[in-house]
Structure formats: structure tokens, C-alpha cells
Amino acid sequence: MENQQLHELHEAHVRSFRAKMPVAPESKPPLSELQSTVVCRCRPLLPDHDNGSFQAVTTNGPNIYVHKEVSKAGLVNTTGKINSKKFQLHASTSDGDDQSIYDLFVQAVVEKSTAGGIGCVLAYGQTGAGKTHTIEAMMEIMFGTGIEIVAVSCFEIRSDEVHDLLNDGEELRVLTGAEGTDNIVGLKKVETVEGEVTEVVGRAKSLRSTASTNANDQSSRSHAFYTFFLPSGGSLTFVDLAGSENKADAISHSESENADERLKEMKEINKSLGDLKECIRLTLVNSKGGKQQHIPYRRSVLTRLLRTSLDVSPTSEVKTTFLCHVAPTRRSLPMTINSLNYAEQMVSATNAAREAAKFKGPEKWSPKMVASWVEKLDGGKYAKLAESMHMSGKIFQTMWLNDFIKRVCAAGGSEADGNYIYEKFHDLVAESKKKKKIKKVEEVTIEIVEGKKTGPKPDAAVMYGAGFSAACVENS
């Protein structure tokens, strides 16, 4: 059968599949409630680049469908029929409108930063899927809002080395501080005034390592970080990860003489991305409870510097949007599926962490959580005392009442205030323990019921309500 005829049959089956799709469901939980949001952006078909390619991806709200021709061993598909595999993230889009992407998925991160918090927008996916376009577009839109930026730093990670993009690409060291955080020693921070930010970022982009590949004429060959410091004390980082690619894509026709260098570069990029994926995988494992696995953040500079952004717990200090980029074509299917698999793992980890947090008793609260609870207690009646509550839930639980009252009085409160706050906290502890006992009974019941039906112990994701973990296959 002629390729054009098969192409038309395939397209007809994809159109039929899309026509039968239900109205896009809403994200659960709502995006506004998420500290970490995982979104798929499927770029449009490009006439010059994708001419003749089969459409292989359909987006529908949080659902992404990957289409593959039905085939049998040794036989060529002559019908154009497709199998459609579903992935489920927090949201997805194939809309080419950058402003919509910003409004839906980036603006909330910017607002977190302008209020004094930490924000991160991270783009990843295969080479040629549109990551750099998205990151640059998001920064340009942000600049156009009139946001005040007081300083900028830009660097790239190339061959597991950090290079300062605002200081002629100088190589810098990453050292671990006393608190366990990783810092780049000597990274230049350029102070800016209104109108200068675009020029500063443009200068950094011009120094970034790129190369021509079969998948992309201007492929980014490094992981780039652009951090903006705001008057509120907040910061916002845009991360453009180098694209994962295979051997065929890595070598450009025009640069065959540099093939060995390009292959070495490809291996280094894929290794760092592999380290990132392993951290994501183990984050999911740990979010399900049970014995905690060591997450190898120190395997590469990339994972060391992204460690805070990979914290998917509801109490994370960083608000993050992960933009998973995929190409819509059949030739990209293996990498599309790979990218979506890891994006789905990140969603599962986020959801499992949210569920686990619901059962995190006050005795396990951090000092920040204890202070926040006191600040909000009875509509803010005791907010003035919140700053004096810098102690963990464990310490609060074991503290003697008289000692607590002394602390409250020293902060300007009364004995009655101390008695009330102390009693309310211990009521919460008792209620939490009661809920945990009920949940434990429910989980044992689930295990017994499921065991009778299927034999094996149910997956922890089911017990924790992480309903996004499994992809399913649907036939059109």
C-alpha cells in the first residue's frame, strides 16, 4: 500500500478517536491547590520539519493519548488502525498559544515568587519538542507584565560542570554548605534596573552551548538555569534542560566530522537526565510509605541543584511547574512514551505525598507548620504569638504546660492564652492518633478483601489513593 494512502487511513482513525472523546475532565485536585504541577505540552506539527509524519499524540485535559498502529509480528499494517495508550498528568495542551501556557501554568509560580517565595519552571523532554521555545517565551511574557527584577544570574551545566553565562562562561565549583544545601561558588549576580533584564538574559543565551542535530537545527547542548531575584526577597528560576536523544538524532549531517565529540556529549546529557529520572522514580517509591530508599541526588551536578525543586510534598518551600514536552509525530513515539512515563511518576509521587500529608499528625509538624497553625488559630486571635512558637510538633507535644505558658507570657501573651493553645494542640494530637487507627483498620480491610479476590497484596499507590499511577490501553 502506498505510504500516502496509509497516512490518510491513520489520520482518519485519529480523527475518529478524537471525535469520540468525552469533554476534557477537570484536574483533580485543582491546579490551584498543587505545590508541584506536572503538565504535558505537545508542540504542533511543523510543516517544514514534520511533513508526512503521522499524528501520534492527542491531549484532552489531564489525559494524553499516544497512538500507535495495530501490528502483528512480521506483518505490515495496511489498515491504519491504531491502539491508544493513555497517560494522566495534572494537565496537558497542544495549544500553540504561549500566553495561554503562561496564564494557566506559570503565572501562579510567578505570583509565589513576587510574594517572597521560591518558584521554579522546568522544561524537559526530547530534542526538538519545543523546550527552549517555551522557556524563552515564558520569560518574555513575564518581562512584559512589568514585574520588577532586581538581579539576575544565569549558568549552564555542561559535561557535569557549571559555567557562568554572565561571566564569559567561567567554570565554577559546586560546594555543599553547613546546612546540606549545594551552592555555586562565585556565580555572578547582575543587578538590573527597568528595561535591562531582556538584554542581560539575551547575553546569557548567546553564550549557551548549542549544536545542529537531525532533530533540531539549534539544539541546546546544556542544561540552562535563569534565576531572577525580586524586591520581596523571592526568587524565580527557569530551567531549560537539554533534550534527551538517540544516536541517530545526535549526529548532524553537517557536522559528521565532530561525530565522536557529539556522541560523547549525548552520553553525558543522557546520563544526567537518567540520574534525574532515577531521583524521580525513588521519590515515587518513598512517597508510598514503607522503607525509605536513598535518593541519589549527588550523582550529578544537575540533580544536586534541582534537589529542592524535586520536593513534591505539600509543605515544600518551592512552587514548581514541570513542563513535559513531547513531539506529535510517530517517529518520536519511543521518546514521547519515555517522557510521559516519568511525568506520570512525578504526578503519582505528588498525589501520594498529598494523601500522606493528610495523615501527618501535629506531633510531626515542622517549626514553620506549628507557627502557621498558631497564627491561624481562631481566626488569627493568637497571630502575635506565632513568632515565639519556633519549635517542632514533637517538642510541643512533650513540653510541660508550665514551660509552655512561660514561653507564651514572655512573648506578650497571658496564662489563659497559653492554656488554650496548649489544650487545642493536644486535642489535635489525640484526634490525629484516632484517625490513624481508623485508617490502619481500613487498609487492613482492603488487603483482606483484595487478597480474597486476587491473592497478592494491593499496590501501595491504591492504598494511598494515588489514582494516576497506571497507564491504560484503549482500542479505538
CATH superfamily descriptor of the largest domain:
Kinesin motor domain
The overall pLDDT, averaged over residues, is 82
The description of the largest β-sheet is: 11 strands, mixed
The overall strand count is 17
Give the CATH level 1 class of the largest domain.
Alpha Beta
**N-end to C-end Cα span:** 22 Å
- Provide the β-strand percentage band: 15-25%
Overall structural domain count: 2
| Class based on secondary structure composition and strand pairing | alpha+beta
CA radius of gyration is 25 Å
CATH fold-level name of the largest domain? Kinesin
Return the CATH architecture of the largest domain: 3-Layer(aba) Sandwich
* H/E element order: HEEEEEHEHEEEEEHEEEEHHHEHHHHHHE
Low-confidence segments, ≥5 residues, pLDDT <50? 441-450, 452-476
Shape verdict: globular
Which percent bin holds the helix content? Answer: 40-55%
Organism: Triparma strigata
Family: Belongs to the TRAFAC class myosin-kinesin ATPase superfamily. Kinesin family.
GO molecular function, one term: microtubule motor activity
Domain Kinesin motor: 35-349
What is the strand and helix layout of this fold?
Blueprint: H1 3-20, E1 36-42, E2 57-60, E3 63-69, E4 82-88, E5 91-93, H2 98-114, E6 118-125, H3 131-144, E7 151-158, E8 161-164, E9 170-176, E10 182-185, E11 190-191, H4 197-207, E12 210-211, E13 219-220, E14 223-229, E15 235-240, H5 247-250, H6 259-287, H7 301-306, E16 318-326, H8 333-358, H9 367-376, H10 393-398, H11 401-410, H12 415-454, H13 460-463, E17 472-475
Parallel strand pairs: 1-5, 1-16, 6-15, 6-16
Antiparallel strand pairs: 2-3, 3-4, 4-17, 7-8, 7-11, 7-14, 8-9, 9-10, 12-13, 14-15
Helix pairs in contact: 2-3, 6-8, 11-12
